[in-house]
Design a protein that fits this description.
CATH topology: Dihydrodipicolinate Reductase, domain 2
Largest sheet: 7 strands, mixed
Distance between the termini: 37 Å
Number of strands: 7
Radius of gyration: 17 Å
Oligomer: single chain
Mean pLDDT: 79
CATH superfamily: Dihydrodipicolinate Reductase, domain 2
CATH architecture: 2-Layer Sandwich
Number of domains: 1
Shape: elongated
Number of helices: 3
Amino acid sequence: MMFETSYFHDDLHAMRQIYQAGGFGKLVYSEGEYYHYTAEPIDSYNGWRIGGPPQWYPTHSNAYYVGVTAGSFTEVSCLGIPSLTKWLQPENNRYRNPFGTEIALFRTSEGGMSRMAVSWTRPATAAKWAGCAGSEVRSTESTRGRSRTCHRSPARRCRRASKRAVTEARTAS
């Protein structure tokens, strides 16, 4: 179930085109975050979602690095933050999971690093966010529907910005 819909977002597609054209160079650092706060657990088939460790559901946070580069993660170190939420107490879920938020630091197949956060307990509306720093650019960031190259722009402007960046990257090399 990796990526779900994230792989098909316009901003991810635009960043993939820039990356493939060499516009970022080698990605040395990337990050992604997925926050899905719920006061009560979300029901699911046989209750599989209830109390699951956040990094067992990295589909949205990790989609941007993997979707842009077609790379993978080769090593990981992860820390969890114990939750005060009742349904995330170890005695209240089948996984015995105490964490509502987990932050992972991955080594990428390019040799870079990637920090990924997933949280069920951060009070906010559902949000996805990703950013990167490459050897050829200082940084960029993208959020579903927003990115620095096309902040709050319609998808058509994102595609135009992407085409411009791809053309610039090709002529520079």
